[in-house]
Design a protein that fits this description.
This protein has 231 residues and is of the alpha/beta class. It folds into two domains: 137 residues, 3-Layer(aba) Sandwich (Rossmann fold); 83 residues. The chain is 51% helix and 12% strand. A six-stranded parallel β-sheet has the order 3-2-1-4-5-6. It is elongated, with a radius of gyration of 19 Å.
Length: 231
């Protein structure tokens, strides 16, 4: 069956989420030290505890667990600090995060090479607003035909529903979609279980039954080999 759509995970697939988050968190720790008079080690401990509480309070893996404003609100409430600082903390974190966002090498060229031959989508956990801002910052939003977030569908990858909505928006059966992502569990297994093709973006050895590319620039050649022709 010919592929008609290529759907990408966003975080740690099209850019280095871990590096951007580390930069943003350092800025957040500096704010906590200066404004909240909170040592970095104590802030990091409270942050981890509140993350766990946020997941528990949400009652499951929903997009709300990624909402940083809620997390900062809960941190301030736990520390008995004024909640008026929550928007400031959000601004500090996201300004630093977006400033640190850099597309992985070759990603725009890769997406441009697929345009016209494939429908291009994003299937992502997290909330929609900052996923759009990330794509804007990365300079990729103009190459995307649709986006499905866990906030929109009410479940997180690897739940089948998110992949089903991706196929629905692509306008083709799941079997005509290829999902590309860095998570073996959330992206690859989730897509395969939903009836899609999938390719794992990783430098590690792939387990049996999983196709892999080491970097995003290898995707066009992967597609040519997979389909036995030129996209």
């Amino acid at each position: 069956m010919k592929l008609r759509a290529v759907i990408f995970d966003l975080d740690n697939t099209l850019y280095d989420y871990d590096a951007a988050h580390a930069t943003a968190f350092r800025a957040l720790c500096a704010f906590a030290g200066k404004t909240l008079d909170l040592p970095e080690a104590e802030f990091r401990t409270v942050y981890r505890e509140v993350m766990d509480e946020q997941i528990s309070r949400a009652g499951g893996q929903y997009a709300a667990i990624h909402n940083r404003m809620i997390r900062f609100q809960m941190i301030l409430e736990r520390l008995k600090k004024p909640v008026l600082y929550a928007p400031d903390m959000s601004d500090v974190y996201w300004d630093a995060f977006l400033n640190a966002c850099q597309p992985v090498p070759g990603v725009r060229e890769t997406l441009e090479s697929l345009r016209g031959a494939y429908i291009i989508g994003i299937g992502t956990n997290m909330t929609a607003d900052y996923q759009f801002r990330k794509l804007q910052t990365l300079g990729l939003l103009d190459l995307i035909d649709f986006l499905v977030s866990s906030e929109e569908v009410g479940v997180e990858k690897p739940e089948r529903k998110l992949f089903e909505v991706c196929a629905e928006k692509a306008g083709c059966p799941a079997g005509e979609c290829l999902f590309v992502g860095d998570s073996l569990t959330h992206d690859v297994r989730g897509a395969l279980d939903a009836g899609m093709s999938a390719v794992w973006l990783s430098t590690k050895s792939a387990p049996d039954g999983v196709e892999r590319i080491a970097d995003i620039s290898a995707l066009p050649d992967f597609l040519r080999r997979k389909e036995g022709g030129t996209p």
